[in-house]
Design goal:
The chain is built from 7 helices and 8 strands, in the order αβββαβαββαβαβαα. The chain has about 190 residues and is of the alpha/beta class. The protein has a single domain, classed as 3-Layer(aba) Sandwich (Aminopeptidase), CATH 3.40.630. It has a 6-stranded mixed β-sheet with strand order 4-1-5-8-6-7, with helices on both faces. Strand 6, helix 4 and strand 7 form a beta-alpha-beta unit. Helix 2 packs across helix 7 and helix 4 packs across helix 7. The longest helix has 16 residues. The chain is globular. It starts with a helix and ends with a helix.
Length: about 190
């Protein structure tokens, strides 16, 4: 009987150790829009598709490291309210929140291009925006009263990745190469923490 207990003990230890809670810090990536809410559109291309692809790449690229866990507010073409998103964010109590969007202007083709970043009032949010701007390229950083920023308790930024109605931005952000490059830059930003 004692021999059976001795043989069985390592299996019990392995079982319980495999369910050890993760010590990883949580980073939330919010892929804006989704479902019926397409966001900005241009000739069949929608903001919701581009930001989901970038967010999914961020999560995939992060999977090989042990310090951070990337949590997406959506991982498919689903629509959830802004309140649902911020409730989820606040329950997770993440290190940071990065909400991804694509800009557009009123003209059919825009000469305006490039990204911009909106922040909360907090210094942590502004510091995160500065890090993103250094990695993606210098851009407009502005404090803005947007729901995802106002209601998130964690340091949060909203990043407009480019203009959908600017030819150069559109070609880059709709390409697999562009989406992967942007995702890799966010992984580098997160790793700087």
């Amino acid at each position: 009987m004692n021999m059976k207990k001795l043989l069985f003990a390592p299996f019990i230890a392995v079982f319980f150790l495999s369910f050890k809670p993760s010590d990883k810090k949580i980073i939330v990536i919010d892929a804006g829009h989704g479902g019926n809410d397409k966001g900005a559109t241009y000739e069949g291309i929608s903001e919701k598709q581009i930001v989901l692809a970038v967010a999914s790449n961020i999560k995939q690229y992060n999977s090989s490291q042990d310090e951070f866990e990337i949590v997406l507010t959506r991982d498919s073409d689903q629509n959830s309210t802004l309140t649902d998103r911020t409730d989820m964010i606040n329950k997770l109590n993440p290190e940071m929140v990065i909400s991804l969007h694509i800009n557009t202007s009123t003209s059919k083709e825009s000469a305006i291009k490039g990204h911009e970043i909106f922040t909360q009032k907090s210094e942590a949010s502004k510091a995160l925006a500065d890090r993103i701007s250094k990695k993606l390229g210098t851009c407009n950083i502005e404090e803005k009263n947007l729901h995802i920023l106002r209601a998130s308790k964690a340091p949060a930024v909203l990043v407009e990745l480019g203009y959908l109605n600017n030819t150069e931005d559109r070609k880059y952000l709709t390409s697999e190469k562009g989406q992967k490059e942007v995702a890799q830059k966010f992984i580098e930003i997160i790793a700087e923490k």
